[in-house]
Amino acid sequence: MVKKELSRKAKLSIYQSIYVPVLTYGHQRWVMTERTRSRIQAAEMSFLPREAGLSLRDRVRSSDIREGLGVEPLLLHIERKVFRTCPTGRRPRGRPRTKWRDYISHLAWERLGVPPEELMEVAGERAVWAPS
């Protein structure tokens, strides 16, 4: 997205309509490990600085680039979408992988400060977790 003929609005539209869906395809079933988080951030930040007209030599923080473009971090977008889904089906044989419910409990503790024991209780109180 180095072309100067495209406006910033057009570049952001391409980012939202093509790049984000490609990066987040199937994300409802992912368990976010540090490796996955790192790869998502790397892919996101390979696109956004070029969209803003910056190079690696400019040494601008990722948060400053996102703020300048008015784009939320892709990891927050994924985490918000994960909270809305509930997986179905059976697991394959072998060692159990990280369970989706355990991942959600960990995410709620990390982001919202809700202990895993209280999660079911808080889930019934929509005023606590739903945006107003």
Would you kindly provide a written description of the structure presented here, covering whatever features stand out?
The protein has 2 domains: 1-86, no CATH class; 98-132, no CATH class. The mean pLDDT is 82. Helix 1 (8-23) packs antiparallel against helix 2 (34-51). The chain contains 7 helices and no strands. 56% of the residues lie in helices and 0% in strands. It has helices spanning 8-23, 34-51, 62-69, 74-83, 100-112, 119-123, 126-129. It has 132 residues and is mostly helical.
Set down the secondary structure blueprint.
Blueprint: H1 8-23, H2 34-51, H3 62-69, H4 74-83, H5 100-112, H6 119-123, H7 126-129
Helix pairs in contact: 1-2
Provide keyphrases for this structure.
132 residues, elongated, mainly alpha
Order of helices and strands: HHHHHHH
The best one-word shape is: elongated
The number of distinct structural domains comes to 2
Low-confidence stretches: none
Terminal CA distance reads 37 Å
Count of helical segments? 7
Number of strands: 0
The average pLDDT value, as a whole number, equals 82
Task: Specify the biggest β-sheet.
Answer: none
Helix content class: 55-70%
Task: State Rg.
Answer: 18 Å
**Class per helix and strand makeup:** mainly alpha
Q: Strand percentage, roughly? A: under 5%
